[in-house]
Amino acid sequence: MRTSHRSECVINQTLEVLGDQWTLLVIRDIVFVDRRHFRELLTKSLEGIASNILADRLRKLVQQGIITKSDDPTHKQKAIYSLTEKGIALVPLLLEMAAWGDEYLPTSKLQGLARTLKEGGPELRAEFMNELRKAHLPASG
């Protein structure tokens, strides 16, 4: 894991963690579509991520403490990826990005859960984040 940064700017440092083409899409699929296994993330992504890229991004997200990887109790050869509190804290950022795209990108339309969470306001967003905590954090389940 990289310990030095190009600058002390917090935006730069955040981009060094999240700013490539795939990382936020992997997090999006874990958060909003509950894809928690490698195969689901690989085959059901609309953007068609390559397996080596997915493996790399998952490894980096684990190293950064955004997700955890554990053995799936239902299948001994599968791993399950879960959000950490640090990962759940990205939900407002993802929702703001979706809202910005909905407003300023003419071909983009906010839909599904993202639209529901936007229209539901802060209370519904907080409730959603609490549901993620119950599903992903061992002490909350």
UniProtKB/TrEMBL annotation:
| Endoplasmic reticulum listed as a keyword | no
* Pfam families with a match to the protein in the record: HxlR
Keyword field: DNA-binding, Transcription, Transcription regulation
InterPro entries, per this entry?
HTH_HxlR (IPR002577), WH-like_DNA-bd_sf (IPR036388), WH_DNA-bd_sf (IPR036390)
So which domain of life are we looking at? Bacteria
Domain called HTH hxlR-type: residue spans: 9-109
Query: What is the protein name given in its UniProt record?
Result: Helix-turn-helix transcriptional regulator
